[in-house]
Amino acid sequence: MSSAAIGLAGPRYGRRATPGRVAAFVVLTALAATTMYPFVWMVLTSLRERNTIFTGPFIPDSFTGAAYVDAWGKTNFDRHLRNSVVISSVSLAGITVLSTAAGYAFAKLRFPLRRTTYLLLLSTMAMPQTSLVIPLYLQVKRLGLLDTTSGLILVYVASMTPFSTFLMRSFFATLPNQLVEAARLDGASELTIFRRVMLPLAAPGVATVVILQFLALWNEFLYANVLLQDPAKHPLQPVIFNLVGQFNTPWNVLTAALTIAVVPVIVVYVRMQRRFVSGLTLGAIK
């Protein structure tokens, strides 16, 4: 092997196992195991017999998929899964479009009361969700949208757009103003600059917003349970919560429903993880 090859291979493969690196590896492994344990327990519990949930070994002696059949059939899981997909998708589309446009405006445009408007928008993030339930309930009722999917989507878009706008403004602020100025000198309109110049460069930020807000929308429980009074219109989370009984809980069915419900989140994250990671590190690199 040539000296050049050795030089190239050395930094990558020839790192010495210093005490600090060993300690970091042990700590990270322990954190990963701690983080993965609830998920692994959930999946294994969904595959075991009900009478061995708390008495059997951690890894079941035998596996069964009966809990998945019960979870899918007894709760009309397909209908509520479809409700969750529709509500999350439409809400996410509205949040992404509004927050991306607003983030660009706050970062690159100059207009009266820009800073004041932005601060007022950020102030809504300081209000806890529970304090807004009654005012939102009364407002949605006054609009005639109570117990409708449209009313719930409207609440989601209005309540989650400020945080997404904050993220997108931060991403657009890292992009050089020279790009905008050059496009303006070439005669491009603001809409063209936004769509063709700035938005492609902010793709990691959009991916970050999509993942974070999809996770929040998919797991949201409070507003869905309060604003939708017809059980047939409920998304997954209120339905899964109803599986918890006061005196008896079918833990295998509950964990089976949770396992199915977590699959879309995993799929979205795996599909967009590269842009998500680059989006999280973009600010640090800049």
User: Mean of the pLDDT scores?
Assistant: 85
Major beta sheet, specifics? none
The number of helical runs is 13
* H/E element order: HHHHHHHHHHHHH
CATH topology of the largest domain: MetI-like fold
Under the CATH scheme, which class of the largest domain?
Mainly Alpha
Q: What distance separates the N and C termini?
A: 38 Å
Poorly predicted parts: 1-13
Number of domains: 2
By CATH, the architecture of the largest domain is named Orthogonal Bundle
Structural class: mainly alpha
| Total strand segments | 0
- What would the principal axes of the Cα set say about the shape? globular
CATH H-level superfamily of the largest domain: MetI-like
Radius of gyration, CA atoms, in whole angstroms: 24 Å
| Portion in strands | under 5%
Please supply descriptive tags for the structure shown above.
MetI-like fold, single chain, 286 residues, mainly alpha, globular, 2 domains
Could you walk me through the main structural features you see in this protein, from its secondary elements to its overall organization?
By secondary structure, the protein is an all-alpha fold. The protein folds into 2 domains: 1-36, no CATH class; 75-285, MetI-like (MetI-like fold, Orthogonal Bundle). It is built from 13 helices and no strands. α4 runs parallel beside α7 (149-174). The longest helix is centred in the C-terminal third of the chain and has 35 residues, at 251-285. It starts with a helix and ends with a helix. Mean pLDDT is 85; it is low at 1-13.
